[in-house]
Design goal:
Elements (H helix, E strand, L loop, with lengths): L2 H29 L3 H8 L1 H13 L4 H9 L7 H19 L3 H16 L5 H5 L1 H13 L5 H4 L2 H44 L3 H18 L1
Helix pairs in contact: 1-10, 3-5, 3-8, 5-6, 6-10, 8-10
Length: about 220
Amino acid sequence: MGRKETGVLRCGQVLQKRTAINALNRESNINSGMELKDFLSEKRSAILKKWFDAIIQTYPPETASFLKRQKNPFTNPVGNTILQGIDGLLEELINGMDSTRLSYFLDNLIRVRAIQDFTPSEAVAFIFHLKRIIREELGGGIPEAAVHELPLLEGRIDLLALMAFDIYAKCREKIYEIRANEMKNSTFMLLRRANLISEVQQNIGKVTILNRKKR
């Protein structure tokens, strides 16, 4: 599949996800009371803390301890980015799924994890942790009507995970592109320092002439 076709596919995927988000929002507006939203708002601080802790635990112990302990955003930009990102995502889950804002918060989170030593599944798995955390916090203390809204909320979380994976793939593609360009530049500099550039160019010219003669 060529670059142009890949771009078209990605645009289609984004449109499909935005359409799905809009459909979930319409369903929520029609069928949902405010019970679940109220409970999520009440439990927001606890949910956010547990979600942050779950993400931090995906790092090595020393790194996790630093990220959790250091509150200064200048000395701990990664921890601050994580906290700001999940706070924004939780806000959108509770009060409405704006695709532009969701993409912004997800992009900041996934960019950090894309350059770190995570597999693709590990990089985006933190989205799914939110399902467990919300169920643990809500427990059995919510009305029956609110319980029936949980599948809708979890559908939104699944969409977040799909969006996160798309962002991760784009980030990794950009990283590979940068590394390939750095390797090319590095090779060129080594050849130039060794005064081999002219020899390589001459050899390429000879090969080209030979190929023309064969034709």
